[in-house]
Fold:
Amino acid sequence: MFDEIQKDIQIRRIILRVLSHLGWRSLCDEPIKGYNKSTTFNGRGGAWFMIGICLLCIGVFVYGLINDAIDCDGMLWLWVFLGFVYLYVLLLLRYSILMLRAEIRVGPKGLVLVGAEEVPDRTTWIHLLKRELLLIKLLPTAVEAPWDNILCIRLEGSFREMEVETSDTKHYRMNISYFDMKLPREISKYFKVID
Structure:
């Protein structure tokens, strides 16, 4: 009798571990009380993948130019289009290299965003041009936000960007498409995330 009860308890523990691993607790809307595990997520895996894709695209483009595989004689608009595509791939390559140093630490005391960008009150095209072309964000900025100071955490663009609003009316944005998909679930254990 005692052995059967012990086996039943062990089976329940295994089932709870499996359900917890599969995200059973992430279905709750409210944060989990008493949860105090710190987790660090980094964007290295996604960044290395995008660096590989960008280098492959640049290699194909250069190979096509060297071997005259790209025939653009007399078509100026095609050269302009290829120039814009090449510039976009270079900017994406630069951004992916910057994301190698990005990380997000989720812990019981708060949220730490390394590589986040402060969103200005008014975004103009000059600010966007400076940010993208003049490489304003060469060094990753670290933002430490305790859970008490966070007003809202919002996921935008089909989980591509995370925006954090703090109590001092500052907005921080970070691209999370390079990170593990478990990141929103881990944050929701401490703070409610708005989709």
